[in-house]
Amino acid sequence: MSVQDSLGAARRAWDRLWDHGKTIEKQKEKTKASKKTIRRRKRDKQPIQYQQTQMNGANMDRDDVEFFGDEQQHKRDNIFRVGFHNIFNLPEDRRTSKSRQLVDYIAKKGYDCFLMAEIGLNWQKIGTNDRWFERIWGKLKTSRSIFAHNVTELSDTQLHQPGGVGIIASEDVTHRVTATGKDPTGLGRWCWIHLQGRNGIRVRTVTVYRPCDTPGAKTTYQQQNRYLRRHRSEFKPREALYEDLYTACSEWLAAGDQLIVGIDANEDVRTGQTSAFFNTLGMHEAILKRHKTSPPATQNRNTRRQPIDGLFVTPGLHAIAAGYEAFGVGCPSDHRILWADFTYASAFGFDSTPMTRPETRRLNTKDPRMVEKYVQEVRKALVTTGIAKRLFALEVKSDQVGWNYDFQAEYDDIQILQLKMRKLIEYKLRKLRMGGVPWSPKLQTYRTEIELWAMILRKRKGIKVSNTRIRRFMRKSGIWDAFSYHQDGVEVKLAEAHKKYRVAKKNAAVWRDDFMVSLAEARAKRNKTSTEKELKLLRRVTNQKTQARNVKRMLKKLGQNATTKLYYTSNGTRVECTDKSTMENACIAENTSRFSQAETTPPMTEPLVSEIGYLADTEAAESILAGNYEIPSDLDPYAALLIRELRMPDSIRADPCIMSHVTTDDHMQGWRKQKETISADPDGLSFSHYKAGATEDLIAQFDATLRSLPYQHGFTPAAWLPMTDVEILKKAGVYDVEKMRTILLMNAEFNMNNKKLGRDMMNHAEKHGALAREQYGSRRNHQCILAALNKRLTMDLLRQTRRAGALCANDAKSCYDRIVHSIATLCMRRLGIHKNPIRSMFATLQNASHKIRTAYGVSDKTYGPGRDPPLQGIGQGNGAGPAGWAVISTPLINMMRTAGFGFSLLTAVTVSVVSFVCYAFVDDTDLVHTAKDVTTRGDVILTKMQSALDHWEGGLKATGGALVPEKSYWYLIDFIWTGETWRYATETDIPGDVSINNIDDSGREILRRYEADVAKETLGIFLAMDGNNKEETHHLRKKAEAFADCIRTGFLSREDATYALHRTIMKTLEYPMVATTMDKAQWDFIMAPVLEATLPRMGYFRKFPRDVVYAPEELCGIGITHPWHNQHLSQLKVVLQETSLPSITGDLIRASFEQLRLEIGLPDRSDQWPWPIVKHIATECWLTDLLQYAEQQDIYVEDTLPVLRSYRAQDQYLMAAFMANGYRKKQLQTLNECRKVLQVTTLAEISSADGVYIEPWAWLGTGNSKPLNSYQWPRPAPLERRHWLLWQQAIRKSFLQVLRTSEHKLRQPLGEWDHDIRKQWNCFHCVNDDRIYHREDAGWRVFSQHPSRVQRLRSLRFVRTNLVVKELPANVHMATTTSIPTGIKITGTCTAPNPLARPTEAPPATMEEALASVAEADKWAIESSHITDNGNSLAAAILRGDARAVSDGSFKNSMGTSSSILFHSCSTDPNRIVSVNAVPGNPNEQSAYRSELAGISGSLAITAAVCRIHDINEGSITLGLDGRQALLAAAGDWPLNPARPDFDLITDIRAKVKRLPVRVKWKWVEGHQDDDQSSHLDEWAKANILVDNIAKAFWNHLNHSDHVPTPHRLGDEAWAIHFRGKKLNRMDKSTIYKAITEPTVKDYWGRRGHLQADDIPNIDWDLIGLAFRSLTTAKKRRVTKHSAGHFGCGTKMLLWKFQDHSECPRCPELAEDPQHILSCPSPAARTCWNAAVTSLEGWMVKHHTMPALTKAIIRSLKAWRTPPIRPLHRSTTNRYGLQRALLDQNSIGWYNFLMGKVSVRWQAVQHKYFEWLKRRNTGKAWVQALIQKIWEISWSMWDNRNDIRLNTITPANRRAIADLNHQIRAEFDLGTEGVGHRDHHWFVKPLSHVLEFDKEHKAQWLASVDLARYRFTYRAEFAASSISQQRETMEAWLGQLTNT
User: Fold this and answer.
1) Phi, psi (5° rounding) for residue 1793?
2) pTM for the full model?
């Protein structure tokens, strides 16, 4: 019989039992005793012991309150424990004891699944901090839970909602959870969790609540009844539940699931419908089947001893232990807890090893008290045991005689001893506290007392307890007489202790705060800060951790990280592993295979393996490094190429090797930067030990020595050999072990040595430029996204130049795991690293003993040691891993470069070389190869790409690596002219493939080829070769939608939602921005789901005005940066950063910019290009998108690239002339293509030498073989005649005379040629010998004149001769010629300009002349100077090396000056040089720091002048200043962040230091030493005091002359950004974004506040922003919402359909708008207003406000509520401009004043008053505080309004209640008429009782009655319709009879 047949039979049986059950119920109703009989029984009832009948009929006594069945024991291994409990309403507050008791009980008893019923909460209205996740945090935080409650009546439901169910699955089974679900009707009747076992065995646990038939509209029964009636169901709720549940259970059983159903049936589960229901499904009650005795009641009000709760299971599940807990166990409830234990084998099909939890660190290095205690104990132990002395002695011996095996044995013994000792000290350090109650030492005393009495009680009961432990607890608690109590007394004491603890828990949070204060004090002492600062930091960190945890939970990223299952493939079959042993075996097999993959590669096979060994410690290895290794003839050819690249560079060979030991300082500094949470091998010490030990000198020296000895001598300590492999998922949900990532947990000391090795190696390589510039991984200031941007820019350049190329994205298989140690050693030693640290690392890896860690603990099995050949790979988790691959990839990339592969191009204008091989970020590498010129086609590149790929694959194999064909793909790029434009060539146009070897070398596999418009993911971003953003837009939209789904259901608080937005999705969207060119519409499309979901969670309306959403906080906006602006501002930052560096990105940006400039043919700055016109002729690319944005926002990118030159006077640019003559779009494109074919930019290039005629070749479009310019032009288009006709038309219209002639004469002849043009000219005419001299190679080809009678110059013809001369004759003219059949003829000549005629300036002879001759951009540095001996003394001092320069700056009131003094040994020497300058820059960018930098500029300017006039090319000068940070910035060489303040000045200073011919030294001078009269002042201090005084004096001088600082370009500054006409000193995105959005936002606020355009500038926006930013997040939200008018006032609530009216709750106003909130005339509002205004007045008086000002503001505010407002009170004084300020505020409006929009004049008025009072207060600070005080008025009024709305009966509420009462009375008037008999109970209670219900209860009562009447009517209509149909049928039948 099939499953369907069985289920069908079961269904029929169930129907019969269902009918039978209803019949029994009816019989029971008939036999019910009368009420009188029941009362008599109650009266006569006597107290008796409960008696019940056993199954066999015997009577027995039993205490019903105790447990029933098995006594629950500690859960054993391989047990699946399930519990069920009707918890009888969970409290709303998570901190209540009931919640804690429930969670504690579940965790303590070890339930795998705990089923709950009648939870009684509406989870959608529960606060974030009281949600279930917060209740279980600390106990069950990695569990999985699901809850269900009625969601069909949310609008009429409060926090408490009867009913509801839930399940929690503990972390032991969460990995088995495959799905969760709940009642599909939304009634919350059941929910379930599905658990996966092995071999197809699955378990589904279900919790069900079946309500009893109880009256009352709020009850669960009536909730469900209303739902059923709305859906016209004839079932009662109890029947309907079984009906729907039966359908679900049948589906689950048919799917093969085992079921465990916990149910509160509200009837005896042994009989009736419940028993029949489960019998039909073939299920049994697990507890009653195990225990045949009659059970007690499971509900404490059940006097008939009926179990109404049950655990029902399918036949395959048999409980090995089960029972009922006693009443009160767990959490307070009227139901017992039911539980059952099942074997893992029966539940999941196998026996499972219990999961082990990783040990929690006891040592917390963030607590200085704990660290201090730890280091004291460790230091004491090191000294007393003598192991420190032994180790230091060992170090001395090893330095004297070298290392040997005896020393290593001693070392290992010391290592093991200290390890055991420190672990023991940590164990005794503290007891772990991870409960839900905030821990503090004070609360711990109460817990200690409970534990003490519990131990004493166990001892009194005869249970064995440690006396030592009891005494320890007696000492901690101070209870010394505990042993004197007997058992009864102990029980009393234990109860008292529990009671005291429950009381104490109420103060837990306060005590925790006290504890944090104590911790803050300790941290302040350690960090030398204040307690307040540390306490604030601690609280902020705690809040951030909570927020981060909540956000992770919301994103479903919080859970079990350990491996709980995996799959492996055996003989093509995928096998699942879920137990400890098989998982470990699978991991060992996989990892052994993984780390031995390289065994067949060249370095691991002959001949190399014999030549260089496994550790490259042979003579052959030394020969390879020396570059004289004789490569074996049978060696793999690509391995041979790689070996040639392993030669040590000469610069590194000449530099001493890095020291191979670990100093104590290096050790302490290294550990100070480490995070203690980083995992290490569990056999060793955790990071916490070393981090704490690094704070104490002896321990740090001891630990540093332990690290240094193996690092120095190259051996492997025994303690370093154990390693633990941890498998983690590469991709979520993929558990195949072959596709998982293996992380090696190594000994912490070993890994720190590896980190040091990697760090030192990278630093040394960077110092010598020995790393491939293409490698962006593991390098400072090399961002991953820049590698992606490089790919984007490369494709742009190919598109701009129409150049062919190919790109191959190849995936290296298990790159870190395949690294061959010998090759890695050679690569590292190639960089000058000593061999011993390298040997120590790789020897340890080769001899390591690997264990496997899964969720079930660390394996006993190991693999690795003793293997030959040894395992390879550097190991993921190795501190040297990323650096190691960067070092290994460098010879690989160099090999490709040597072979001639890669991208190579000459820039368009400067003709500079840009070349690189690939795009690499660690092991992600994409190869690129492009044509060397624009004429090479794609089919040639295809062949080259195959060769490049072969080289790369071969080189990678020579390191142990291999490529994965399945993950590799490629593009072929070329371009085809369509006749109108260029398009990408497709595979149809250029067919062809490339291939690579399979991993197993079984053959070659063709790689997938994609077209240029297909985007593939690279480094986290989807890039298409043609630059389209479609796929990336779609990808980010999916990310946004996923985030929106999470936050919509995540129940975050408003603050957490704000945190989640800014820290997660906005960061996700921000990452690719640097490389994308998405437009505003695309970003709006991406952001739409984010804002729709997040704004409501943040407390805003989802349609909140986007102008305010994207406004910065300084403008009272929400502070979300619009991604479109962020994208381009980030790109501008990259431009500024990379163009100041010699990076690939910078080269590509410059190349693209030059190509763009040549392409459009315009000379001007990019901001002066007419972009609406230019965009049609510019190739779409990253740069054009950025420049168009910049033009829209009035941003100018000032570059340092040369512009397109002109060649002679009156020269014109062709494209500018065409645009001026009206050519646009398609025509302009065609003309530009013609120009690019001719390779010209100006009119002079296509004109004759005399500047009179257009050259024939230029007119006809035949081209010029030798253009005048040297630009690198893109591929020319094969244009047709129609294109050249348009060209001729444009030339004629733009330049030629109106009279048409065949000679094409210019309208305006051109002027003289530039002086340097002669050396570029190719053709000259000698008048003396009538010859033409044409440049040919290194000489001049002679053309002689053809005899002719024609004397006209343009008619003369010349023929080619065989004569070539090396030098030109003296008297020659520049000539232009054209070819004719017999030779050439002249088209024009002119006199050649004489280059020597250009005037030259004489070199300066004096310092004054030298300073005057510097570039204009550098003259600011020396505004005034005092020079005595023309710098002779200083010049001599520079040559001697004792020259000194001291500078200082002065800054005040947005203006800065600086002064410098240069001298040789004495600052008072008369031959010193003193100078001053005014600091350039915008006033708001001035600072003391910038003034210090300006002083350095002055010193460098003087130094450069001295070196110039005295011709100095060697020597040194020492620059001193008292600004330490300015000194470090100027002296540094690290790449600067463009967002750094004074980026321009620091860049300029660094460039000038490099250009100086002498060495610059730096010295910090302590400032203001003259303040200490007793101190001796040296020359440096005296000079510092002098320049400080001079700078101040110069500042005073400038201040009196009304000097205003102005920004301008600096001489050696790199590219710069100008915004709205002013150069910026840095790229501050937030400042620019604020300025960009400011007009839009202010316009919105103006429209919102009904302001005139003239009023907006009069508002003090700056101080509003300062006041706003200092508010809390909640207050910011209030200000924004109230200012925007989008908050819950009446009109908005009506608009948003949250209520059906807009009335004011305080007064009869029918339309409550935002302004009415403040102007409401109700008495309550008036009282609140007066109190708020009085408070404001008191504040103003207290803060010394000008009395007239106080009076004016208070009077105006009061007048605003009682209009009309008088413009100006006659008594108002005009002192300090008060009247003008008041008039301005009147114009702005006083409602706007209350919204914080204050007049900008208030500040000046109050500031002048403060000055009059001679107080140091400022008007600025006063206005800022005033604004916040004003906001408090609106908040007070809003709170008052809400308090009345919520706590009093408002008119709207009164009307709503009256309406409900009217409806109720109407229903009572109708009575039971029209209501079925079963619904008469709604009218049992009198009308007066129903009218006392609350509002929600009344609404539910009415809904129930309304549905009852509807049901009655519907049934009547249905019955009538049925009778009518029967009558019609009968009539039809009778008619048929009649007819027959």
Assistant:
1) -60, -45
2) 0.84
**Distance between CA atoms of residues 1317 and 1399, nearest Å:** 16
Q: Please name every residue paired with 59 in a beta bridge, in sequence order, or none if there are none.
A: 53
- What does the DSSP 8-state code read for residue 856? T
Cβ neighbors of 589 (< 8 A, separation 6 or more) are 568
Q: What CA–CA distance (Å, rounded) separates 1016 from 1025?
A: 9
DSSP H stretches of helix in 1177-1220: 1182-1192, 1214-1220
CA 1601: distance to chain centroid? Answer: 50
- Phi and psi of 167, rounded to 5°? -135, 140
Q: In the β-sheet with 849-854, what is the strand arrangement from edge to edge?
A: 740-745, 722-729, 849-854, 857-858
Distance (Å, whole) CA 1082 – CA 1080: 5
Q: How far is CA 1167 from CA 1188, 1621, 1802, in A?
A: 9, 11, 40
pLDDT digits (tens, 9 = 90+) for 199-228: 788 999 999 999 998 888 889 998 898 898
Does a cis peptide bond (omega within 30 degrees of 0) precede residue 869? Answer: yes
**Angle of helix 1080-1098 relative to helix 1123-1138, nearest 10 degrees?**
120
- On whether the CB atoms of residues 1563 and 1519 are closer than 8 A, the answer is yes
Nearest to 368 by CA among 570, 184, 217, 527: 527
Closest CA to 904 of 803, 975, 985: 803
Q: Are 786 and 923 spatial neighbours (Cβ–Cβ below 8 Å)?
A: no
Strands of 1401-1502, DSSP E? 1424-1426, 1443-1452, 1455-1463, 1473-1478
The DSSP bridge partners found for residue 1456 are 1451
Q: What's the CA gap between 688 and 423, in Å, rounded?
A: 11
* β-bridge mates for residue 259, sequence order: 204
| Residue 1127, burial from CB neighbour count under 10 angstroms (0-12, 13-18, 19+) | buried
Provide, rounded to the nearest whole percent, the portion of the chain with pLDDT above 90. Answer: 61
Question: Quick one: pLDDT band at residue 63, thresholds 50, 70, 90?
Answer: very low
DSSP assignment of 1264-1288 equals -SS-SS---PPPPP---HHHHHHHH
Q: Which residue type occupies 1617?
A: I
Closest CA to 1103 of 635, 1749, 1695: 1695
Helix (H, G, I), strand (E, B) or coil at 362: coil
Alpha carbon distance 418, 390 (integer Å) = 12
In angstroms, what CA-CA distances link 1821 with 532, 780, 1733, 1785, 1810?
Answer: 23, 42, 20, 19, 11
Whole-angstrom distance, CA of residue 1365 vs CA of residue 1902:
115
Residue type, 1141: L
Q: 1510, 1520, 1643: which is closest to 1587 by C-alpha?
A: 1520
Q: Going by DSSP bridges, is the β-strand pair 1516-1521/1559-1564 parallel, antiparallel, or unpaired?
A: parallel
Terminal Cα distance for the chain, rounded: 48
Q: In what order do the strands lie in the sheet with 963-973?
A: 918-921, 924-930, 805-812, 963-973, 1008-1010
Residue 1247 has pLDDT above 90, yes or no: yes
pLDDT value, residue 654 = 87
Distance CA 1869, CA 940 (A): 96
Provide, for the chain, the percentages of residues in helix, strand and coil under a 3-state DSSP scheme, each rounded to the nearest 5.
Answer: 50, 15, 35
Using alpha carbons, list the distances in angstroms from residue 1043 to 548, 683, 917.
Answer: 15, 40, 38
Phi/psi region, residue 1338 (left: phi>0; alpha: psi -120 to 50; beta: rest), is: alpha
DSSP 1659: B
Residues contacting residue 1903 through CB under 8 Å, at least 6 positions apart: 153, 156, 217, 226
Q: DSSP secondary-structure letter at 1519?
A: E
Q: What whole-number distance in Å separates Cα of residue 1215 and Cα of residue 857?
A: 74
Residue range 420-468, pLDDT digits in tens: 999 999 888 865 444 455 556 677 788 788 888 888 887 787 766 677 7
Say if residue 11's pLDDT is above 60. no
